[in-house]
Task: structure prediction
Amino acid sequence: MNAMFEKTFPRRDFLKGAGALVVGFTLANSMRASDAAAMEIGPYGPPVDQVDSWLAIGEDGRATLFTGCCELGTGSSTGLMQIMAEELDVAFDRVRLVGPDTSRTPDQFVSSGSRTISAHSRPIRQAAAEARAALVELAAKRLGVPAEQLATANGVVSVKSDPAKKVTYAELVGGKQFSVKVTGKVKPKATNEYKIVGKSVRRVDIPEKVFGTFTYMQDVKVEGMLHGRIVRPPAHGASVVSIDESSVAHIPGLVKVVREHDLIGVVCKREEQAIAAAQALKITWSNWADLPDMKDLHSTLHNLPEYAEGYPKDAPGGVLTKSGDVEAGLTTAAKVVRATYLSPFNHHGSIGPSCAVADVRADGTTLYCGTQTPYGTREAVAKFMGLPNERVRLIYTEASGCYGQNGADDVTIDAIVLSRAVGKPVRVQWSRADENGWEAYKAARISECVGGLDQNGKIVSWQARTFGLSGYSRPEYHEPKHGGEPGSLVTAQLAGWDKPGLEEGFSGAAGNFEPVYEDMPNKRVVFTYLGPTSHRQGPLRIRVGSMRGVGSPDNIFVAECFMDELAAAAGMDPIEFRLKHQPRPRGVAVLKAAAQLAKWETRPSHSKPSSGDIAYGRGVAMLGSNTDTNVAGIFEVAVNKKTGVVQVQRAVIAQDCGLVVNPDAVKNQIEGGIIQSISRALKEEVTFDRSRVTSLDWSTYPIITFNEIPDAIDIVLVDRSDLPPMRVGEPASESVWPGVANAVYDAIGVRLRQLPLTPARVLAGLAGNA
Amino acid sequence: MATTKTLRVNGKAVTATVDDPATPLLYVLRNDAGLHGPRFGCGLGQCGSCTVHINGEPVRSCTRPLSSVGARDEIVTLEGLGTKEKPHKLQTAFIEEQAVQCGYCINGMIMQAAAFLKKNPKPSVPEIKTAMQNNLCRCGTHMRIVRAIKRASEA
Result:
């Protein structure tokens, strides 16, 4: 491995050098699954053949956590450190964290789905609890006092009856090496003992970010590094016919024009030279224009073949729910309501386009990137290169916020191809157009609903079907299925890799499509998978992948808008109507908490027509399950009937996400999710012509600006610290699309069923052309 | 022809040799001066994450050609605005309000706001929003950013 790329604090040296107490997880993986389940660790511990140490307490008394979880700019690493400090009983500032690096941290699979705290923290908590127990045992011997008579606080073990009799963790470790195996027998602290978990500890990453001293992926520099840029086809399916290298001969600093199948790049000494070379390089591409007309997108989706191979056994596609007899219910219904909902492709829209640095050498490859799947991407890259995994070291480096899978994995192949071609380390920075043009988008959707109401306004039938694209995007499945397939990456496809990838879309895209209401006798909910697609493969050459919520935002948009349509048809208040159909108890609690905070006025929607230009409305949406976060969101909007502009004035969120590790960080995530989702609800739509995506910058893909944000986002976190911590980053954001659409209906009395709710669509709706 | 130019960045001389005088200032700041504050976001002057001050004015360094910057111009980046030891009041306020998520846009937010507060030291919330209108944040940290600017203006 290239020694020059060792960051400070190399793990193995640390462990072999000075004294330390190291907690390994080897034993945990030989435990029976039932033991792991009893420890609430789940499948999130490192595999037995991986790095076996999890956390270490040094002879200075400082604790270091080695985690495979990626900090994606959400503050999750601060939360992990709180959990670890809490269980160890050390001060928060005595804890540090080493992020993913395939040569020194365990594999914790995909950092996605808001699961770093809700799931991946569990083995960390257990390891810390075991470390504390081991230190107490050492202290018992040292002090000659039984362990049960000892207490721990702030890195010190003391005798309960004689606190002057004590020993520090640092003294216990001394210069010696202790190896602790996780037994699963140590019980972590009870919630009511928490002193650090539950506090709004300030995030550890923020100071460096405001002083300009933070090193993002885009800032990584290594010795001898050259600069690369890539040149993508002008059409998704186009291939290289010829390259005129003389077109860049005049560019100073040009090192090489690199071609691997249809992956074309330039390498230069300086960054601006690489930009100039990429712009100047003349390539003749084949013609390709097989995308549908954009206005026919949803009819195209409707007519695409279903996923050809059938669903994997455990895929949540197909018929999600079937109970009773929907048809029979509809024949007895007093009222039948039908609705079709449409949504567009969305960009992730990271402010910083993707970047990677690769150093391909005969003795091993080092790769810096901002992935969510350090081990899966390492494996994909190794396969792509024809190398065993151990010959590739991937060092995770935080990049711009991703909100799902942006180009962070794809750019690794670009960097590998260019570095391999020139024999030097190469940094590849995607342009804004590279990112928007070739990332994996949130899938467009068409969804159809039929519902029946009896004479008392009760739902007798609920039928919902949605057509969801699956795509080649992530190189690794969610746990416990391991992946590492280059075929998922569009860059590998461009480079000629012809083996299939993993079809993203089976790991949650259907989530939250089933209604949250218990009292629905006849129900049929169907999720039809289409595709899989990529720019280079599949029946619709537009690549789709995971975006914040992975399918849930669309599913909840459909389910909760349709619930609102039925409430209106029943002439009932939207919240009363929801309560009448029996959400689960935690759902009832958040719905009532949101209504109270919003001072919800009980009345049917829509509101009375206003005489002025501005119409005001409010809408609600809810989501959740018994084992996951429950959210109710209420949104107040002002709709300008002359311009069609919708402004969300206030959002009220009630959230029950179990134990809250860091309340302010949770609120930060909720606020962010609300604002980003308002932007998606009102403004965002990927555009394309017959050859390619055309929303390649911020003028063609506008997002929310300061003048468009709500005046207030009011949040109540329902106290359920008796429950384990649950997902935070995604759920609240998923209430926004239906909540805002329902509020617009309340304001103007016209139901808009196609996202985004642009001024043109609002005006068309008001003119009777929705 | 390669040209060598010396700039004043955060009070220090920075010398860079570029082939094309139209090279955007951003690349010289990042690659020659080794700074991390100014960030590449769009290269089109649309998002604001590359913002620096030239003689106190906020400038999008991704579209500002090196040829337009003179040896006497005072360039200040986020690193020069304040440090951990001597923070600018906006940097303190951003920490106090925890007004960061991924933080990629925050350079632009602080640099834009710092120039704005010099001209309008006691702004209203609507004035802050209008001043920040052309800086994009994707994480949705806007509420906190507005609060942090307001807090700094009251510090």
